[in-house]
Specification:
739 residues, alpha+beta, seven-stranded mixed beta sheet, six-stranded mixed beta sheet, 17 helices, 34 strands, 24% helix, binds dioxothiomolybdenum(VI) ion
C-alpha cells in the first residue's frame, strides 16, 4: 500500500456529488429525439385467459401510436430456455405478452404507446379486456399441505446428519416452534423503467434499470433473436435494487419490442403500484425443532422451511443450511419445501435465504437459551462451530467470536437482566436481544480493463452495475492503490454491457469478483510498464522483476530503494502514451476452506405496553467481513441493511386479498417501511479479520450481512421486554397486544 492510498480509510463516494445533485441519471431520464412513451396495462384477475382485448377506443385517442398485446406482438422466441437469464430459478420464466394465459394478478397484458406519457396512461384506461376466469389459489396457509421438495436448481438444500428424530425425542430440553414471515416487496426509490433507443440500423441501445447489464443484454438478444452486438444495455446509475433488478423485469422486453416494431425510441416506466407485480421476498413458515442438554448444548437441530413460489418456476435459496455453519450439532434434519400459488415468482431480496433462515434459527436459539436458563450470547458460544458441517470444511476465516465480544461490549450486553419484563425506563419496558448473522462470501468470474495514461491518469472499466453500494468508489480506490496513482486521477466506467464482461451486481460478491479483475488488469499494465522502463540499456531498472519493484505516486521504484523511473519516462522510452489491459479473475474452486461473512447483532427495544408501540432504540452490528476497503462506504451498507432488518421485524408486509388473488398492498400508504422516526442509534463495528486464502485482496463483501439476524435480534429483544413471543413477522401492535 502506498503513502497516498485511500484503502481502509473512510473515503467519500466519488459519485456522491452526481447522486445528490441529480446529475446521475436513471433509466427513464434519458431523452432522445422522437421518443414515444409506453404505459403498461396489467391483469385484473389472477388466473385464466384473455378472451378479447378491444383496443379501438384507445387507438382512437389523438396521440396514441400503437397498442401491443399477445394478439399482435412481434415475434419472440418460442423455447423457454431463451428466457432463462443468469439468475433464473428452475422452471419456465414468465414471458410478457407471449400468449393469452393469465398467470398472476398484475401480469402485464398490454402496452399502450403514445406521443406523451399522459396520453398513453389515459388511453390505457380505455382498453376493454374480457377474461375467461379460472379459479385461483393464493392462500399459502391453506396450501401448506401440498408443499413439495423442489429439485433442479443444482443446489442441495436439504440435509440430514445422524438421527435428529431420536436425538430430539431423547433430549432433556426441547424447543418445538413455528415462525412466519410475511411477503415483502423491495420498493427501491427508482421505479423500473427502460428507455430503448432505436439506432436506425436495427441496433438498440437500452437504458434499463437493472443490476446486470450483461444479463439484460443477453436476455434481449435471446428472446428477440438478435446478435449480442446489436443490443447494448446501459445502467450507469441505479436508484436502489435490493435484488429486484437481478433478473430482467418486463419493462425491458416491452420497451425493446415496441422500439423494434415502431422503428422508434420508446420508453416504458412502471408505476409504484405495478412494481408490486414484480418479484417479492416469499412469505414462509419455518418449523424448528431443537433438542439440547440441560446446559444448552445442542443434540439435534430440525428445521423445515416452507416457502411460496409461482406455478411456473421453483424459486428458492439457501434457507436451512446456516445452522450447520454456525452451531455444532451431530444430528440434523434440514429440509426446504415450496408451495405453488397463482402469483408471480418470488425473487432475490437482500440476503435471500439468509435473512429468512436466520430469523427463525436465531429466534429458536433465543427460546432455547430461555429454556436452558443460559444467557443467549453464552448459548452461541457453547455451541460455536469451527467447521462448516454442511461441507465438513474449516473456514478460511471466522472472527465471529470477536463479533460477539466486541458487539456485546459496545452494546453493554452485561447490563441485561435475565428475567423478561425486568428492565424498565419510565413507562416503557426495555428489552435487550441478540442474534448471529452469516452470509456466504462469494466470488464469481469477472473481467475488467485498466488504461494508464502517460500523464498518470487511470481508467478502470467493467460491465457490472453499481446499484448503490459504492462500487465506483471501491474500484477507483483499488485502482489508485494498486497502480500507484492518486485517487483523483482515476475514472471508473461501469454499467455498460459493451465493457469487459462481468456478472450482475448482487450476492455481496462484486468487490471480491470485479475488484480481483481490476487487480489483475492493473498488474498486467504494470508488467508492460516495467518492460518499457527497461527498454534503454541505461535503465536503472534493468534486470528487475515485477516483484522487485513497487508502483507508487507515479513512479516505478526498486523495493531496495536504489532506483526509480517515472511512469511518464517509461512510456516515453516505449514510445506510447497509454497502456491498456483487460484481465479476468476467477475464484479458487479447489479451495479446501468454506468462505463466510459473520456478524453479531444486538438490539435494544422500548415497548409502551398500553399502546403496544415498539421502538428500536439501539442496534449494534458487529461484522467480520475480511478486509474492509472503505469503512465509511461499508458502514453505510450495514446501516442500510439494518434499517431493512427493522422493516422486516416491525413494518413490512404485503397482504393478499384471496378473493381476488391479488396483493392488496400496493402503495406506500399501505406498505410500511421504517422512516426516520423509526430509526434511532445504529452502530457498526468492523472486526478485524485477515483472510489471505479467500482472494488476494482479502475481501468478502458487505452488501447483505447487515440484514441477516437483525429481525431476530429485535424479536428477541421484544420477548425480553414483554415476556411475549410473537413468532410472526412483522411484529405489529395488534399481534403484541393480542392475548
Ligand atoms: Mo442482492 S438480493 O444479491 O441484489
Amino acid at each position: 500500500m502506498t503513502a497516498t492510498s485511500t484503502l481502509g480509510k473512510p473515503t467519500s463516494r466519488i459519485d456522491g456529488r452526481a447522486k445528490v445533485t441529480g446529475a446521475a441519471k436513471y433509466a427513464a431520464e434519458y431523452n432522445v429525439p422522437e421518443l414515444a412513451h409506453g404505459f403498461v396495462v396489467t391483469s385484473a384477475i389472477a388466473k385464466g385467459r384473455i378472451a378479447r382485448i378491444d383496443t379501438a377506443d384507445a387507438l382512437a385517442v389523438d396521440g396514441v401510436i400503437a397498442v401491443f398485446t399477445h394478439a399482435n406482438r412481434p415475434k419472440m422466441a418460442a423455447s423457454h430456455e431463451k428466457y432463462c437469464d443468469d439468475v433464473a430459478p428452475a422452471g419456465k420464466p414468465f414471458r410478457p405478452l407471449y400468449d393469452d394465459r393469465i398467470r398472476f394478478s398484475f401480469q402485464p397484458v398490454a402496452l399502450v404507446v403514445a406521443e406523451e406519457p399522459e396520453i398513453a396512461r389515459f388511453a390505457a384506461l380505455l382498453l376493454r379486456i374480457e377474461y375467461q376466469q379460472e379459479p385461483h389459489e393464493t392462500d399459502f396457509e391453506k396450501q401448506r399441505g401440498h408443499a413439495f421438495i423442489a429439485k433442479g436448481d443444482g443446489e442441495t438444500h436439504s440435509h440430514k446428519r445422524g438421527n435428529a428424530g431420536k436425538a430430539f425425542a431423547d433430549a432433556p430440553l426441547k424447543v418445538d416452534v413455528e415462525y412466519r414471515m410475511a411477503v415483502e416487496h423491495h420498493n427501491p426509490m427508482e421505479m423500473f423503467g427502460a428507455t430503448a433507443v432505436w439506432e436506425g440500423d436495427g441496433r438498440i441501445t437500452v437504458y434499463d434499470k437493472t443490476q446486470g447489464p450483461v444479463n439484460a443484454r443477453n436476455y434481449v438478444a435471446n428472446i428477440f433473436g438478435m446478435e449480442p452486438d446489436e443490443v447494448r444495455v446501459l445502467v450507469p446509475y441505479m436508484g436502489g435494487g435490493f435484488g429486484s433488478g437481478l433478473r430482467p423485469q418486463y419493462e425491458l422486453p416491452l420497451a425493446v419490442l415496441a422500439a423494434r416494431a415502431l422503428k422508434r425510441s420508446v420508453r416504458v416506466t412502471l408505476t409504484r403500484q405495478q412494481m408490486f407485480g414484480l418479484g417479492y421476498r416469499a412469505g414462509n413458515i419455518q418449523s424448528l425443532k431443537l433438542g439440547a442438554e440441560r446446559d444448552g448444548r445442542l443434540l439435534s437441530f430440525g428445521h423445515e422451511f416452507i416457502g411460496m413460489t409461482s406455478r411456473f418456476e421453483a424459486f428458492q435459496r439457501t434457507y436451512v443450511a446456516w445452522s450447520s455453519q454456525l452451531y455444532k450439532c451431530a444430528n440434523t434434519d434440514l429440509v426446504q419445501k415450496l408451495v405453488r400459488l397463482d402469483q408471480n415468482s418470488p425473487c432475490d431480496m437482500r440476503a435471500p435465504g439468509g435473512a429468512e433462515g436466520l430469523y427463525a434459527i436465531e429466534c429458536a436459539m433465543d427460546e432455547l437459551a430461555a429454556a436452558a436458563n443460559v444467557d443467549p450470547l453464552e448459548l452461541r458460544l457453547i455451541n460455536y462451530s469451527d467447521r462448516d458441517q454442511m461441507e465438513d470444511k474449516p473456514y478460511s476465516s471466522k472472527e465471529l467470536r470477536e463479533c460477539y465480544r466486541q458487539g456485546a461490549e459496545r452494546f453493554g450486553w452485561s447490563r441485561r437482566k435475565a428475567q423478561p419484563r425486568s428492565m424498565k425506563d419510565g413507562n416503557e419496558l426495555v428489552g435487550l436481544g441478540m442474534a448471529s448473522g452469516i452470509w456466504e462470501a462469494m466470488q464469481l468470474e469477472a473481467c475488467a480493463r485498466a488504461v494508464l495514461g502517460a500523464n498518470g491518469s487511470l481508467e478502470i472499466a467493467s460491465a457490472t452495475a453499481d446499484i448503490g453500494p459504492g462500487t465506483y468508489t471501491m474500484m477507483a480506490q483499488l485502482g489508485a492503490d494498486l497502480m500507484g496513482v492518486p485517487l483523483d486521477n482515476v475514472t471508473v466506467k461501469l454499467g455498460d454491457s459493451d465493457l469487459p464482461q462481468a456478472p450482475v451486481e448482487g450476492g455481496s460478491f462484486t468487490t471480491a469478483s470485479v475488484g480481483s479483475a481490476v487487480a489483475a488488469a492493473c498488474r498486467a499494465v504494470q508488467k508492460d510498464l516495467l518492460r518499457l522502463a527497461q527498454k534503454t540499456d541505461a535503465s536503472p531498472l534493468k534486470g528487475a522483476k515485477l516483484d522487485d519493484v513497487e508502483f507508487a505516486d507515479g513512479w516505478i521504484r526498486r523495493k531496495d530503494g536504489r532506483a526509480e523511473v517515472s511512469f511518464a519516462d517509461a512510456m516515453r522510452a516505449g514510445k506510447v502514451d497509454r497502456i491498456e489491459k483487460e484481465a479476468s479473475a476467477a475464484p479458487n474452486h479447489k479451495s479446501k476452506y468454506a468462505h463466510y461473512t459473520h456478524s453479531a447483532v444486538f438490539a435494544e427495544v422500548k415497548v409502551d405496553e398500553e399502546l403496544g408501540v415498539i421502538r428500536v432504540t439501539r442496534i449494534v452490528s458487529a461484522v467480520a467481513a475480511g478486509r474492509i476497503l472503505n469503512p465509511k462506504i461499508a458502514g453505510s451498507q450495514i446501516l442500510g441493511a439494518v434499517v431493512g432488518g427493522i422493516g422486516m421485524a416491525l413494518h413490512e408486509e404485503t397482504a393478499t386479498d384471496h378473493r381476488f388473488g391479488r396483493f392488496m398492498v400496493h402503495n406506500f400508504a399501505d406498505y410500511h417501511v421504517p422512516v426516520n422516526a423509526d430509526v434511532h442509534g445504529i452502530e457498526v463495528i468492523f472486526v478485524e479479520e485477515k483472510d489471505d486464502e479467500i482472494n488476494p485482496l482479502g475481501v468478502k463483501g458487505v452488501g447483505e450481512i447487515g440484514i441477516v439476524g437483525t429481525a431476530a435480534a429485535i424479536a428477541n429483544a421484544i420477548y425480553h421486554a414483554t415476556g411475549k413471543r410473537v413468532r410472526d413477522l412483522p411484529i405489529t401492535i395488534d399481534k403484541l397486544m393480542r392475548e
